[in-house]
Amino acid sequence: VKALCAWLALALSCTWASSQDGAGELKLSGYAKSLLTDSRTVVGPDEPYELDLNRLRLEVKGPLAPWLAVDLQVDNELLLGDYLGTQQFQVQKALPPQTYWNAHANWLDAPRAYGEVLLYRGSLTASFEDTDFHVGRQRIAWGTGRFWSPMDLLNPFSPVALERAERVGVDALLIEHKVNALSRLAFVYAPQRDTVDSDVAVMWHDNRHGIDYSVMGGRFAGDRVIGADLASQVGEAGIRAEVTQTWPDAGASFARVLLGLDYAFANTLTLSVEAFYDGSGTLEPAQYNFAALFSGRVQNLAQHYLGASAYYEITPLWKTRHDVVLNLDDHSRYYSPSLSYSISSNLDATLGAQFFGGAEGTEFGAFRRVLYAQVQWFF
Amino acid sequence: MDPLSLLRSRRDGCAEAAVSSTTRGRAILVGLFLALLSAFIVSPVRAVEPDGREILDRVEKLLWGNTVQGDYEMTITTPRWQRTLGLKVWMDRPKRSFVRIISPAKEAGIGSLRIGAEMWNYLPNVERTIKIPPSMMLQPWMGSDFTNDDLVKESSILDDYTHKVIGAAPGEGGEVLQIEAVPKPEAAVVWGRIVYWVRRDDNMPLKQEFFSERGELVRVLSYSDVRMVGGRRMPARWEMRPTAKPGNLTTVVLKDAVFNQPVADDVFTQRNLQKP
Questions:
Q1: Among candidates B84, B125, B139 on the partner chain, residue whose Cβ is nearest the Cβ of A268
Q2: For chain B (length 276 residues), average pLDDT per consecutive 10?
Q3: Which of A138, A233, A348 to mutate to test binding with chain B, by most B CBs within 10 Å of its CB?
Q4: CA angle A161, A164, A170 (to 5 degrees)
Q5: Are A178 and B271 an interchain contact pair (Cβ–Cβ within 8 Å)?
Q6: Is 0.90 surpassed by the pTM of this model?
Q7: Do B135 and A236 touch, CB atoms closer than 8 A?
Q8: Residue A103 to residue A344: CA distance in whole angstroms
Q9: Which pLDDT does position A18 carry in this prediction?
Q10: pLDDT tens by residue, A33-79
């Protein structure tokens, strides 16, 4: 709570400082969202539940001085529903934070209501000539993948996450030096609670002959990793690729490979397909580590996957999206349709579902069907 | 002295200076010769009136300049709803352009960068920069009747098309030329042809008609509200109407602009794109 108060004080002082030296405008923005879900638990006893997640995100962004900018985003969440009484929620509450800095505080813990405030983003950026120094909680988005991204080791995400746009940030120092309009050299240091496992990496990003590419090398959670990605086009279609090679502290090295293809039709239908190979996965469902999957320590369990998404604007107000993920090893599958409607310029409503299929013991067979409804207002 | 006599005096003075050593008859012959010569000189000038390409070049320069830094407002209207977007645009023709949405809050921060034939979008909700495949250039931009290509002007009406004046007709404010632009065989453009309606006297664009490869009229872009913006007299209101969707309309209003001033190279960078 003290830390969050400190951030709030920083934001207010930033606003004041910005108004004093005329560096530019700090913008206050954010959103309010209510996400109602209906499903069953996958950890502990199989229990049906309803959960209503209500989130107010306040964002303060902008320049403090000609050379200094702030990005502060604080979430205030209120959870309601019988999910709070499940064993799964108790396990979830006890999980250690995924970030170095536990900028998170609980202000209400009742049987049917749980309130918390947490830091979503909180970083300062100092710019000198062509070099930016970013310090604090931030999103460092490396890689080109949509369902999977072997290069995105600092902010890994799950292809079946309900809120895929919400990415846990990383507490890090990021130094980026712009070499020209499309190329930059980046260095990142992200401390972990165990300093031995701190993430350190360098990345070079460039564009040559119509191809965006990056090469990266570093140490992530004790593993040595090198990798590369690219984004380009073949004919009218976009192509994407990523490859990494990892040498763990213990065990054999492994590779991860992603290939992606995108095509957009003039009628707004946009198709994406991705194939993913993960050498760290297993071909034996009996060896699946579901605890690591459910806690977010890994994002998949098997080796071979196929993902596809279709997005279509029925009208500029009505939009639909369909995601499919197949585990090619155990033949389990995931399908998520959603339909969004723009009620007004800044108010959206979404109805959607997540369906999982597969035999008992398979990756997606372990999940339960989710129905959800969401209303989100931006300001 | 009355004005007529002054005029006569000057004319006479000039004649005297020019033909001071000649007889009056030779002076007349010389005068006739000069008159014929000037007629020959002037006639070719009239014959090489600006061709279609040159007129469209003037139109493009009027609307965009060599560079432009402008605030635009785009309103998308259908029979059932309407929405308005605020945009900031930087353009360094013909190679580079940058667009940032500043309102409404839901879309604020979305940015587009084009350099040459390549384009990138920054999506603040996922905090990522995405390279746009060519097929996406023809998709509607933010639900409007403009495409991504219209917005960042990847294809060039001057370089990707051939041009011909196909007609002229009297119109409001003077004679109006119709200039047809037909894509070059190798050009990667979507239109079968585009017809510009441009006022001859001041190169003021009045409208553009976009035809499909099958010759169907697909949409019409009309220009109006001619006034001073950024130090030049130009249409500040542009209306795009798709012919297949009666009642649909996308209006772009140029609120303010600076033309032909250098734009910092830092604007057209991925670094800037990622700083909404």
A1: B139
A2: 37 38 50 49 50 91 93 93 93 91 94 91 93 88 84 76 92 90 86 94 94 94 95 95 93 96 95 91
A3: A233
A4: 100
A5: yes
A6: no
A7: yes
A8: 34
A9: 52
A10: 999 999 999 998 999 999 999 999 999 999 999 999 999 999 999 99
Q: Which residues of B touch A164 (CB under 8 A)?
A: 126
Residue B131 near chain A (CB below 8 Å): yes
Q: Does B213 touch chain A (CB under 8 A)?
A: no
Distance from CA of B104 to the nearest CA of A (A): 7
User: Looking at this predicted complex, what is its ipTM?
Assistant: 0.90
Collapse the DSSP code of B23 into the 3-class scheme (helix H, G, I; strand E, B; otherwise coil) and give the result.
coil
Closest Cα in chain A to B102: A27
Report d(CA A79, CA B45) in Å as an integer: 79
Task: Look at A249 and B253; give whichever has higher pLDDT.
Answer: B253
